[in-house]
Write a structure and sequence with these properties.
Blueprint: H1 9-20, H2 24-37, E1 42-48, E2 54-59, H3 66-72, H4 98-103, E3 107-113, E4 120-126, E5 129-136, E6 141-147, H5 154-157, H6 163-180, E7 185-190, E8 193-198, H7 204-211, H8 216-219, E9 220-227, E10 230-237, E11 242-243, E12 249-253, E13 256-258, H9 261-270, E14 280-281, E15 283-288, E16 294-295, E17 306-307, H10 310-327, H11 338-342, H12 373-394, E18 408-413, E19 417-422, E20 425-430, H13 431-448, E21 455-465, H14 468-482, E22 487-490, E23 495-502, H15 510-524, H16 529-544, H17 555-567, E24 581-585, H18 586-592
Parallel strand pairs: 1-7, 12-15
Antiparallel strand pairs: 1-2, 2-6, 3-4, 3-6, 4-5, 7-8, 9-10, 10-15, 11-14, 12-13, 16-17, 18-19, 19-20, 20-24, 21-23, 22-23
Length: 596
């Protein structure tokens, strides 16, 4: 058996570097976090070859003395823990091994000057060996250069990705940290080209819109919720403003960027009945809570956290998001695709088919071809317009298009789209998508009053087999599930007995339901899972109970639908995240006819 021995300091640092500096983005994160913690007002980042050749971070923070710089390069030395209360750390980092670990796997140059000092100091370490130490000329603050990362450790270098991929990871790090600190200005250059620049002192909403998507200024809602010492702020995109991947979800806990499963699950739950399963919300959420309520030390890079009360945190985020989205009313991301708008022709009528109005709603319904317009118009004029004109003269004048955000119905196209006149333009409504949302909101309102809590006892209880840990989690959640109509009890070490199901799920695959709940509990931890599943069921019911595309509606029915949309939260999108209405501004209509 080998004799136990102490490892050399250089090898110890390289092992630590494996935990802290697995790629350039990780080293950059440590350096930028240090700059933020130093009280900087501006931070400038320069990269070369995606960070493989160069990482340089310059700040105007408090700076360091010569003695502080020497200590900073020792392992487990830090200025961020004034006492031993490691669980109460309020800065972005505190680990003392970051700088020596980076210096052990690269050529590392650190220059710093404290305010009021005549000059600064410089220390150079080449892959763990100090090679220079002396005065340096620089303004107050700190500048750190990391060159040739893993240059003398080819075994590590060959596992890194391409410079382009490493640059993308570095950009994401800077973007997230800049989002968390709108009071700080950031610049980022890559291979001599400036790719990011934000001014300090911005509002949170302005910083998020600039870094995530400028459309969020119009297609997002502000999040502002407080419950005791816990606070949730940020910007959430409307459900109709979504993406095909979850890369545009930015989550922060006490100002620290995180990628936490519980928070991601809460976001998914909040948007559950407003987005298709393959679409993802765009948002930036900032959760602030007392440090003793969250453990930030469960992951070496601090990207995951553990909450003392995860059920409360999940419910708090879901309720905050849903409340804000409900406040958006019938708003929808009103940006029809360019190809769809190009289908509007300002040309003489040809013998080509009419534009597909359905493309505005990502559907495939099409109106009658233009070549039939002449004959259809003559028949319509004789059989419909003349009698209608006489009736209108005898009756009251049509309702004016004022005081209604979605306007007043003027007709129906292809028995699918309601055309309404608003004060400032033309509104086109997808009748099925709109009514689907209205029916779902009615069903959910009934559930909020207790109507959906009814359960139906099974004639013969069903046994569902699960792994023992899954059974433990489901059994622990059984009281909460029973409150919503799902009655379960333990049936041996690896099975659950289902005695009753929610009335809304009667006749469904209850075993699959319990398995899905067990998976959700394993993935997300707890809370609101059955409600989310009921929302999916209600969405299916709403789809089948709604006004179908292709059904003729009277003007009175169309106006009733429009008025209910104006009163109903989240009516701007259907249950799958598509818009329920679009608007063509009056100015755009005039442009189509050459009036502008």
């Amino acid at each position: 058996m080998s004799v136990i021995r102490r490892l050399p300091e250089t090898l110890v640092n390289r092992i630590a570097a494996g935990e802290v500096v697995e790629r350039p983005a990780a080293a950059l994160k440590e350096l930028v976090e240090n700059a933020i913690d130093a009280g900087s007002i501006t931070i400038a980042v320069r990269l070369g070859e995606g960070g493989l050749g160069l990482i340089e971070v310059t700040d105007d923070g408090c700076g360091m003395t010569r003695e502080d710089m020497a200590l900073a390069l020792e392992r487990h030395a830090t200025s961020k823990l004034p006492d031993e209360a490691i669980e109460l750390v309020a800065t972005l980092g505190f680990r003392g091994e970051a700088l020596p670990s980076i210096a052990s796997v690269a050529r590392f140059t650190m220059e710093s000057r404290v305010r009021g000092a005549d000059g600064g100091w410089q220390v150079v370490v080449d892959h763990g060996q100090q090679v220079a130490d002396g005065p340096a000329a620089l303004p107050p603050g700190t500048r750190i250069r990391v060159e040739d990362l893993f240059g003398k450790i080819p075994a590590r270098r060959k596992f890194l990705r391409s410079p382009r991929s490493e640059y993308a990871a570095c950009l994401d790090v800077v973007r997230r940290l800049a989002m968390a600190r709108p009071e700080v200005g950031f610049t980022l250059e890559h291979d001599g080209r400036r790719v990011l620049a934000v001014q300090g002192g911005q509002s949170l909403a302005a910083r998020v819109a600039q870094l995530v998507a400028r459309e969020l200024a119009e297609d997002g809602v502000a999040i502002e919720l407080e419950r005791g010492p816990v606070r949730l702020t940020g910007v959430a995109g409307l459900p109709t403003f979504n993406r095909g991947v979850a890369d545009h979800q930015y989550l922060f806990v006490n100002g620290r960027p995180v990628k936490d499963r519980l928070l991601v699950g809460a976001v998914r739950g909040a948007y559950a009945d407003m987005l298709a399963r393959d679409r993802h919300a765009v948002l930036a959420l900032f959760l602030d809570l007392p440090p003793e309520e969250v453990d930030v030390n469960v992951h070496p890079a601090k990207t995951e956290v553990r909450f003392r009360d995860p059920a409360f945190v999940r419910g708090f985020i879901v309720s905050g998001l849903r409340h804000a989205l409900e406040g958006a009313g019938q708003r929808s991301a009103q940006a029809p695709a360019g190809p769809a708008m190009a289908n509007w022709q300002a040309e003489p009528i040809s013998r080509e088919p009419a534009p597909a109005l359905g493309s505005l709603f990502t559907r495939n319904y099409a109106p009658t071809a233009v070549r039939d317009a002449g004959q259809a118009w003559r028949g319509y004029e004789a059989s419909v317009l003349a009698p209608a004109a006489k009736a209108e003269m005898a009756d009251a004048a049509p309702e004016p298009a004022v005081s209604h955000p979605l306007g007043v119905a003027r007709g129906q196209v292809a028995n699918t789209y309601i055309v309404a006149e608003a004060e400032d333009g033309l509104v086109i409504v997808d009748q099925h998508a709109a009514h689907e949302r209205l029916v779902l909101e009615r069903l959910k309102a009934a559930g909020a009053q207790g109507a959906m809590a009814a359960s139906q006892a099974l004639l013969i209880p069903e046994v569902v087999e699960l792994d023992e840990p899954d059974c433990d989690r489901v059994a622990e959640a059984a009281p909460q599930l029973a409150a919503h109509g799902l009655a379960l009890e333990r049936f041996g070490p690896d099975a659950m007995l289902i005695r009753a199901v929610p009335a809304a799920l009667a006749g469904g695959d209850v075993q699959a339901l319990v398995r899905d709940i067990a998976d959700d509990l394993a993935q997300n931890g707890a809370a609101l899972l059955l409600e989310e599943r009921l929302d999916h069921v209600l969405a299916t019911m709403a789809c089948h109970g709604s006004v179908r595309a292709g059904r003729p509606l009277s003007v009175a029915e169309m106006n009733a639908l429009l008025r209910e949309m104006e009163r109903t939260p989240r009516s701007g999108q259907c249950n799958h995240g598509r818009p329920t209405w679009v608007k063509l501004a009056l100015e755009d209509v005039e442009k189509l006819f050459g009036r502008r």
